[in-house]
Amino acid sequence: MSEEFLKDVRINNCGRRFKFRVAGIIQQKGKILLVRMNDNKFFCFPGGHVELLEDTAHAVERELNEELYFNVKVDKLLYIHENFFDAPEGKYHELCFYYKATPVDENFETVDTFHEEIDQGQLVKHEYKWIDKKELTGFNARPTLVIENYVKDEDKFLHLLTNDLKK
Q1: Is 5 a residue whose pLDDT tops 60?
Q2: CATH second-level architecture of 3-163?
Q3: pLDDT value of position 167
Q4: 90 vs 3: CA distance, rounded Å
Q5: What is the per-residue DSSP string for 102-114?
Q6: pLDDT over 90 at 2, yes or no
Q7: Residue 20: CB partners within 8 Å, gap ≥ 6?
Q8: Buried b vs exposed e over 67-103: b needs ≥16 C-beta within 10 Å?
Q9: Could you report the per-residue pLDDT of 95-104, keeping only the tens digit for each?
């Protein structure tokens, strides 16, 4: 197991998994940036795992820089989302901090992109897409509760809870 992997805050225990994530909500010219990873059927806000001893604001800046190849500044914390869900590899408990973030580069463009990277020894494919905010609710993006609340009131801080675990 690589040293990088050991820094991420995540626990695997008997088919139950916990992960501590951050995500950036980047809005430019009325469009929102989403990512689809590894041919998933859905898109989500870009981000990644928090590392041990790392604060969440720094984590979102680091993750977005690593994945998007541009720097962002964190504007404010919008949501803390506790998400419980089933996946093929087990049951998940995910805690994610969603930050509103702004690209630092003034020449930043809202262009759909695709790239691949090696993350913890695995090939990861990222498809980045800019979606008009008005189309966000009808778009296949997750988590649904975060998307719905962002469309309703983008600057209101909320603690959100989704529990889709099957008994």
Answers
A1: no
A2: Alpha-Beta Complex (3.90)
A3: 67
A4: 24
A5: EES-TT-----EE
A6: no
A7: 9, 10, 49, 50, 94, 95, 96
A8: bbeeebebeeebbebebeeeeeeebbbbbbbbbbbeb
A9: 999 999 999 9
